Records
---
Amino acid sequence: RPIMHLYGYHRHHLPADEWLAPEELMSSFAIDLAAARRLIDQERNFPYPSPDNLAVDGSPLLDEVAFWPAHLRYTTDPEVDLPAAFGLSEDQVLATGLAPLTRLDQWPVFTVALPTGGVILIVHRTQHSRSLLRGQWVQQAAEHQVDFWLAPTDGAGLPLGTLAAELRGPALRWPELKAIAKAAAPDRREIARRLLLLAPMLGDKHVEAEAVTWFAEAISVLGGLDRSVPAVRRAAERLTYGNECFRFATWREEDGIWVCDGVDSPRNPDPLIGLPA
C-alpha cells in the first residue's frame, strides 16, 4: 500500500466532541453529572480507526468509468440518471464503482493540485458511527461520506466540505473550479478529472452558462459518450447547478477574500461556522 500524505487530515477527522456537554446529557437522559462525564470520556477514548492506517491511493480508480457516477451520486438529484450519462446501469455502478469506495478497511484518497500551490484531498471514508441510546453508546450501521480537505503549501490543513447525511459546503465558486481544472491544460483527461472530482463542492447561484458545456465535455471524455447525448446533457446541467442544498449559495468579495453566504459553507465569514480568513 502506498503511504499517503494526508496533509494534516487525520488531526481534524478524529471524532469531534464539542457537541458533548455534560449538562445536555444530564437533561436528555436524566442522569447525574458523574454518569454524563463518564459517557463523554468513553467517547473521547473510543478507538476510532486512524486515516493513517486506512488511507490508500485512489488514483487507479480514476480509470474506471463506474467510479465517476459513484463519486458524483450525492451531487445530482435522484431523478437524474447519472449512470446512463456514462453508458452504465445503476447495478454496474453499485458493483464496480461504489463498492471500492465504501470499504471499511480502505479509504480511497484522491489529490487535486491547486494552481496557486497546495492541494485538495478528496477522501471516501466508511466507518461505524456511534450514538447515545438510553444513556449508552450504541454502534450504528456503517456510514459512507466524502471529505474535501484543503492543504495549503504551509500551515495546517482545513476542512472544505463533506458529503454525508449532514452536508457541509459549498466550497467553490464556478470561476475557482474552472481555474483549478484549466491549470491541467493541455491534458483534456486531467482537466475532466479535476472538474468532476471537485464538482460536489460547487455551489454558485450565479454560475456561468458555460459550465454546462464544460461538464458535458468532462463526462464525454471520461465516459465515452458524445457530449450531445441527452443523458450527458442532463447530467451536466445538474452538476452545473450543484447539490440542491448548495445551488442557491451566493458569493461576495470582502477585503480581497471571496466568502459565501451558505449557512453550511466553511467559507461563510460567520465565526460560528466558518474557517479563519
---
Amino acid sequence: MPKTILIVDDSASLRQVVKMALQGAGHTVIEAGDGKSALALLDGRTVDMAICDVNMPVMNGIDFVKAVKEKAAYKFMPILMLTTESSEKQKEAGKAAGAKAWMVKPFAPSQLVTAVQKLCP
C-alpha cells in the first residue's frame, strides 16, 4: 500500500535519489533540507514515515527525531536514519531519540525500499 514519506536531508541530490526510489515503489514523497523545515511539514497531514540524515544545518537528525516524538500525532511514526555516520555512539543516540532503523550511505535503492516496506507495512 502506498505511503507518504518525508525525506529530510541537506543534500538535494541525495533527496532526489531517495525520492526516485520511493516513487518508483509507488510512494508519495515530501522533502525538507533540515530538521526544522521538516518539523514545519508535520502540520497534521498524514505522514507515514520519515527518512532522515544525521548531520544537517539548522537542526540535526537526532534533534529532529526527539522533536517528532514530542508531537502526539507523529509519536509512533517510524523514522529511518540514512547517514554516513556508522559509529555505535551515534546509533545509540539515534535509538535513544526514537529512530527505528539506521542505514549507512552509500546504499542500494532496492535496500531502502525493502527497509521502508518492513518499517511501514
---
Amino acid sequence: LYLDHIIGAGAMMAGLLVNAGVGLLILFRLNHDRAQNLKIIGTLYGLGVFWGIIIEFAGIVF
C-alpha cells in the first residue's frame, strides 16, 4: 500500500511499530496476565500512533 501511494510513511510506520500480528498472539499465549497484556498493547498502540503522527508531519519518506 505504501509503494502504491495509498498510505503515507506515517501510517506505514505506525502499523509496523504497533507490531500487530503473530507477536500479539504469542503474547496472549505465553503470558496469562490479561491486565499486563492490555497494558502492553495500549503502550504499543500509543507509541505507534505518536511516532506515526511525528513521521507524517515531519514529511519523512522512505
